[in-house]
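Dear support,

I submitted the protein below through the web form. The confirmation email said the job was done, but the results page showed an empty box. After a refresh the structure appeared. I'm attaching both so you can tell me whether what I see now is the final result or a partial one.
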Amino acid sequence: SSPVPAVARVDHPVAWRFEAKDASGAWREIPGAGSSVTVRLYGVLGNTQGTTAPNLPWVAVVDDATRAVNGAAADAAGVRSALVRHVYQELGLSYDRAQGASHYTSYAGTYAAAGFKLARFLGRDFGPIVNCSDCASILSTYANMIGADLSYTIITSSFSLHPILGIGASAFGSPFDSGRMAFTYHAVTSPDAAATIWDATLAVDGDADPATAPYVKKLVQGMAGAEYLDRLSGDVRAKYNYVDKKTTLSF
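What the results page shows now:
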């Protein structure tokens, strides 16, 4: 049986020995001629990131992503959900409460062409502050490198927000220090043209009334696209655009 039957990072011991034929022609183990090593194995679903540099699986990302999933999933939906939790709760990231600006992601001309400075992010060269474009890049890149296909989608434009729990925040409310309750745009990820949404930037209120307290933290893990817009905003101006777009990596 496989030592990695699900998506996981496994340190697997491998032992071997040497034998020689004795005078009778029988194989005998040579005393003291054995050894062993620990081999790190990665259980993944495949690779949807690419096959040419830099758009191919990076060991540093695969190592972290499979460790985060840790055998809890053997399908794409489960992997995506585990990675939402990992990016949102475990990487020590916080939303840019001053301007909501991207620190590791940029767009070439329009929202249709995102570029992600992956090596810079892995080194946290610009710190732990991120925005929605950064979180969409991180989540989709991690997922794609272990075969759980995700693309990004942009929600536009200039729409109001319900109280949310931004990445790194301790309480529901505005993601901005100014108290502004609106996004100019918002980047999320989806494998199916926004029919279902995975978002590592924020948690929404999961109760029957997302506009008012009390608030129940709900991670965005495979949420129906229509439900997500209702919980995020409820504003008719919030619409999915630039769907199923791929992020290009750079060093």
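Response: this is the final, complete result; the empty box was a page-load delay. Helices lie at 59-69, 76-90, 118-122, 132-145, 225-232.
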